[in-house]
């Protein structure tokens, strides 16, 4: 995007004092006034020119589709003829709310969200705390923690399918080794949800640890020194200095992970040994994202899939409001 | 504070945990299907790696997939970096009406997951007959609120107002300031953002999965997922495909890991 300079530089004296009517308009004076107008136009409109590409793209590929999803959710739209839309009011919503599999998917999304987010963030916090010590080879460890983040959902999910294999998987072999009966990581509800969550945890723990670490390094050192002078142990320092300072960051990661948890899709899709979109033969690990895909792309009901998407959007808005209220409370109390 | 031995033990465990699935992908890819259907599972490399890589490469259409993904991720990274830098500069250093409100919108959009928009996008793509075409994947990937936010945070502290002032006094227009002052100052952050965007677009799954097919014009993720969801019963081949799909990014990490770590941490402060 090569853009030519449209605004010419102002003359040095005239540029800074705009709007001064020339008493005797000579050619040079007029030229100067024109340059100054150009200069003002530049100063005034360039900021908008700089931010507009982002906003235009966002309108086209972010906001418009989001709103149009709401519109489509009030219509019957089939995959076979996506342009034929028939108004059905709220029927798509009543249909999905009557569907047991919707509630099942909602519950699974919640439980997988909790199983994957809580241990992930706790481990990330502990890891960040350790990485914050003076370490030999600290960069090495940080890069290693981030290797899973570089691994795609597809590759990660496929290897975990094998590791969690019922008959020949490494994990059941290790369990057997310590005397625990093999677990059916595919068909049983909680084990399968745990396995799917493991993929999420594996990919994101290191990333979140780095976020926490960055925030920890921004804590002024003298806070720790004065706490140490007061005789606070390392654990006490962590509780009373580190954690309070990290509050905004913790909130940020909780919000981001919560949003991510509502969107889990690729992991359960690829974890399913039946290769369907039902999240296991009994829908035992079907998430809302997967349910949306099943309704829209397998059953070809785009209108109903839109209703699911908008329901998820409304859930996120509620999450956002709750988060806002909590963060205000926290700020007020501190 | 110096770390004690326990800290090193924990770090070693986490490092092993991080690397083990990756290493085991390579181990499984170097075996054959029969060996993967035995207990105990293999712990060391076998002799089938090159054969498996060769078959997976051809079966999963990985050659085309690599080419496509490089184009998609490259175009997306370059465009996002450019657009984010000029927008981030405007938000960081220029004064204009509506700046605060617009920045709030940018931050707000970071909270709206793209998954909620796929249905109308899919309808658009179907109407334009763009299924199996790369622009269907590239265009939506050019929107990155995170990029704008990231560049703004960087430029606020990395670009002193005096330098801009000095350029202005010399008569530079806003575009000249961008070319000759902002871009040079932002170069480190632009490189990091470019890498982050490249990794993210390379690994994008849902949207490419919906509009591209394994036989049509796949990205690496679509091809690898297709291998896993196809009717190949051979697990070692699937692992070979997964390995091939991951290697380029692991290479990027091996070379630029330090910069990427720095970038993520930089973007996080005041996040």
UniProtKB/TrEMBL annotation, chain A:
<feature type="transmembrane region" description="Helical">
    <location>
        <begin position="143"/>
        <end position="165"/>
    </location>
</feature>
<dbReference type="InterPro" id="IPR000515">
    <property type="entry name" value="MetI-like"/>
</dbReference>
<keyword id="KW-0812">Transmembrane</keyword>
<comment type="similarity">
    <text>Belongs to the binding-protein-dependent transport system permease family.</text>
</comment>
<dbReference type="InterPro" id="IPR035906">
    <property type="entry name" value="MetI-like_sf"/>
</dbReference>
<keyword id="KW-0813">Transport</keyword>
<feature type="transmembrane region" description="Helical">
    <location>
        <begin position="307"/>
        <end position="326"/>
    </location>
</feature>
<feature type="domain" description="ABC transmembrane type-1">
    <location>
        <begin position="106"/>
        <end position="323"/>
    </location>
</feature>
<feature type="region of interest" description="Disordered">
    <location>
        <begin position="1"/>
        <end position="33"/>
    </location>
</feature>
<dbReference type="InterPro" id="IPR051393">
    <property type="entry name" value="ABC_transporter_permease"/>
</dbReference>
<keyword id="KW-1133">Transmembrane helix</keyword>
<dbReference type="Pfam" id="PF00528">
    <property type="entry name" value="BPD_transp_1"/>
</dbReference>
<protein>
    <submittedName>
        <fullName>Carbohydrate ABC transporter permease</fullName>
    </submittedName>
</protein>
<feature type="transmembrane region" description="Helical">
    <location>
        <begin position="45"/>
        <end position="68"/>
    </location>
</feature>
<keyword id="KW-1003">Cell membrane</keyword>
<feature type="transmembrane region" description="Helical">
    <location>
        <begin position="110"/>
        <end position="131"/>
    </location>
</feature>
<keyword id="KW-0472">Membrane</keyword>
